[in-house]
Amino acid sequence: MKFLIINGPNLNMLGIREPDLYGTLTYDGLVEYVAAEARRLGVEAEFYQSNHEGDLVTAIQQAYGRMDGIVINAGAYTHTSIAILDALKAVSVPAAEVHISDVAKREDFRQVSYLGMACCCKFAGEGKQGYVHAMEKLIEIIRNKNT
Ligand code: DQA
After folding, report:
1. N or C: which end of the chain has fewer CB within 10 A?
2. d(CA 22, CA 147)
């Protein structure tokens, strides 16, 4: 099984940006941790980060026929991007939504998730663990679909 782990705008600033909300782990540290967990789970993980909406759309499109699952933390685009929602729908690769912070307890504008409409599940407020739980859920869903 092969998963694409997508991180959107400002997630490259992890470790620097609002550490009380997002913690002190850097983006490279996150990748290292999630890659090790992917190996433990027996899946292949490819990582992609961009601050640009169109590049995130392209990365999702390129997952078509190549990836078994997508783990996506689209950052602020979560709350605004119909283009990312449409891309996820277009490829229909099973996708899981992740947020490091607990968006449910934050501002009203973070309560909307467009891309969530194309995701099987959502993990928020679990920090780096959310990415691992997302991979575990995708593995379960894909295995159930294939039996
Ligand atoms: C975030 C939550 C978003 O609302 C915010 O815009 C981010 C990060 C998170 O991981 O908690 O950039 O996706």
Report:
1. C
2. 38
Q: Could you read off the pLDDT of 63-84 as tens digits, one per residue?
A: 999 999 999 999 999 999 999 9
Rounded Cα distance between 63 and 147, Å, is 23
ipTM score of complex: 0.99
| In CATH, 2-145 is 3.40.50.9100 | yes
73 marked as part of a ligand binding site: yes
Pocket test for ligand 1, best of 6, 14, 53, 78 (most atoms within 8 A of CB): 78
- Token readout for 105 is 């307890």
Cα 36–40–43 angle (5° rounding)? 90
